[in-house]
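#struct-help
A.M.: can someone run this one for me? Single chain, 412 residues.
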Amino acid sequence: MYNPSAAGGVASTYGSRLFVYEVEGLRQNGQTDRFGYPIRRSGSVFVTVPYSRMNQETQRITRLGGKIVSIRPYDGSPGSSSDSNSSNSHGSSSTDSQPVQSAEATKPMTQAKEKPAKPDVPVNIYRPKDPYVGACLSNEELVAEGGIGTVRHLTFDLSAGDLHYVEGQSIGIIPDGTDDKGKPHKIRLYSIASTRHGDHVDGKTVSLCVRQLEYKHPESGETVYGTCSTFLNKLEPGAPVKITGPVGKEMLLPEDPEAKIIMMGTGTGIAPFRAYLWRMFKDNEQAINTDYRFKGFAWLIFGIPTTPNILYKEELEEMQAKYPDNFRLTYAISREQQNAEGGRMYIQHRVAEHAEELWNMVKDEKTHTYICGLRGMEDGIDEAMSAAAANEGIVWKDYQRSIKERWHVETY
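D.P.: on it. Structure tokens below:
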């Protein structure tokens, strides 16, 4: 799981790692001339900095009026001119970092690796003013007896239009009726819970995982029900549904079939992960996915309040049993399990338990991490990852920014 090209070798050598700062706004003046910085009138310049001098270099760039746009590990590309000067950052007594190069001069060796080209992703095929109207095919309860609340799995027919999508996207639902001002209800976005081929694997359906929103009014104390979730909760098979979209590019799966996928979700945040896992492991999906055969590793850490609230439980455990070397399933059941301190077990506690293992995975350039669920869950995850990174002298937030193309978050 550990990839030296991503993490810079073993932990004990991290202090000698090189990083590339992308900097904007460095002003031309006598001080920058003295440092030998070839400042451009616009755009970015790049400076290669050893880990041991990151704080000093950050302060110096700030004094020169620069803004650090990103910090990425230096990829050590063959032929890099920085290679010939690397002794300055590996034990040399010099107090200066390597000089800033112009973007044109250093692009081959100091810029972060370019993202691989992505296939065309459909966006906004249907808009709110002209939505697709499809029929509800099924509306099934996902919470087992004894669970808390209600969550529905809904499937809609797409055969009468051109609405298509890929895993990780969302669609909008326009509930019937009008608001308290007599205007049509606004769209609500929901993560798609099916693969691009749909639950029927014929390319003619889309599915959602929807929790009935219910809360107490802060002033009256009355129970308030969400407009769209109530509409969907009560939807009968055959009823028409106004659909918009699809939208979203943040949660897309990498095309690499050998990728490592970490999924951390709570409640209905399972929706996009179900789509991913179906694409990876479902037999009927594999039968038609002739250009995609998942050979990597997927790990789902799923937070729920009780065992009956484990959404898609049979599906998940069937895939885990069939593909034990490729799929790992970890539950955080808050009202049934205890954390190390004796309190309720939430997803951040599971992440903390496995922090070292997760950290080593995250350092691998083949790893993509996805977080989906209630807003605020990221804080606990960041805290756990910060502790693991700190063991190697790394500031988690800085490193997290450097892997933003592999760290995907969608919370609500």
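A.M.: thanks! The CA atoms of residues 215 and 224 lie 5 Å apart.
D.P.: also worth noting: The first helix runs from residue 4 to 7.
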